[in-house]
Amino acid sequence: MAAILARAGAAAIAAGNLRRPQETGNDSRRRTRNLVVAAVTGTRPEVPQEGSLERPAWSGETPLSRLVGALIAFKPLYFLMKLASREVIISCSMRRCRTAEKSNIPWREMTKQVLESDVYEVFESIRDLNLVYPDYYLNPFHAYDEGNLSWLAAAEAEPATMSIAKRAIPEAGSIDEANQIVRGNWLNAIEEHHLKYSGNCQINDILDVGCSVGVSTRYLAEKFPSAKAVGLDLSPYFLAVAAQKEEKISRQNRIRWVHGNGEATGLPSKSFDLVSLAYVCHECPARAITGLVNEAFRVLRPGGTITLTDNSPKSKVLQELSPVLFTLMKSTEPFLDEYYMLDLEETMRQAGFVNVHSILTDPRHRTVTATVPF
Ligand SMILES: C[S@@+](CC[C@H](N)C(=O)[O-])C[C@H]1O[C@@H](n2cnc3c(N)ncnc32)[C@H](O)[C@@H]1O
Asked: Residue ranges of the Methyltransferase domain (predicted)?
């Protein structure tokens, strides 16, 4: 059963179009100027496209979504799905498979390297023993029984992150190229928004909430090299991997790593110009997303920018995922329905943000940006 699910999922995962980007939301305007669509190796990805629905039919409270929920709730089936889901990501063997190992992500080598390193010493210096984890964070997640609180999850986080870009841009000739498009469009959307609405405030301080093993933090630090960047995450395992990697990188301002909860960071009010949440919210229940957005508002200075990038409910590719694939995905992502149901733009407005804009920055993901008013 697991093998069948894995094989079918592998075939389905190959789907994906890159068409002209579209902004979404009532007050959105089209912004395509800085979108990276030219691929380095000469492949010609199309531009992102919206589907015809508000959100995928397999999400939310539709009969289809409830059926998938019932299948996942059946424990023996859930166990098989969990295995299959992992298999699809790591080592599917179908010819056109675009997932990790077939896309030249050296998944097992990267994992081994972390597990056999001195990361365990870094861990001791980074974890806050007094931190109280939110309840949602203590559940099994991403096919790991201990969720993000384990060494295996931490060691596999970077290859898993790399596979996000490859899945978003299956036409890309390499992982690097896919990352340049996915991360490049996200960074350009941030820069463009900040330039337009910050009233000429420079980006001096950046907070990357849910930084995981630091991939997004490093991209932000490289895009804004004169800024001081802080990466914050609930997983001390992930942070240890991030900090260990950062030790080998030389840059103008060293990244600081904080073990904390993005809903209550304990960081001073009005102390950041940019708060980023990259691929965090689909992993959180709606109440936590609201908490994260409110806390971002508190720590941002007037004119500061919040940016949130994650799965777009309007993505045509996501709306057209195969039943096998969305079932597998939902089996290891317990909060997807809540994420897709939440009106993120409205949540930002409710928190006090203005100039809320949403743009499809690749075929699967939207980047939502907004400003703290002066
Ligand atoms: C998919 S990862 C983020 C990847 C990373 N931002 C990037 O773009 O490479 C999601 C992260 O959010 C973190 N997270 C979830 N809830 C959080 C919270 N309330 N506060 C801080 N981090 C949280 C998880 O520990 C996990 O590392």
From this structure: 206-304
Taking only the tens place, the pLDDT of each residue in 241-265 is 999 999 999 999 999 999 999 999 9
Q: State whether the beta carbon of 24 lies less than 6 angstroms from ligand 1.
A: no
Residues ≥6 apart with Cβ < 8 Å to 115: 151, 152, 155
Question: Does 351 score more than 60 pLDDT?
Answer: yes
Residue 158, pLDDT score? 93
The verdict on residue 23 lying in a domain is no
Q: Is residue 152 part of a domain?
A: yes
Give how far Cα 24 sits from Cα of 167, 259, 345, 355, Å. Answer: 22, 34, 10, 13
Q: Is residue 321 part of a domain?
A: yes
Distance 210 CA to ligand 1 centre (A): 3
| Predicted confidence (pLDDT) at residue 217 exceeds the cutoff of 60 | yes
Range(s) of the domain holding residue 45: 1-16+28-374
CA 268 to chain centroid = 25
Mean pLDDT score, 135-145:
83
Number of domains making up the chain: 1
Residue 21 lies in a domain: no
Unique residue bearing structure tokens 């859930």 = 78
Give the per-residue pLDDT at 10: 35
Residue whose CA is closest, atom 10 of ligand 1? 280
Question: At 370, which CATH number?
Answer: 3.40.50.150
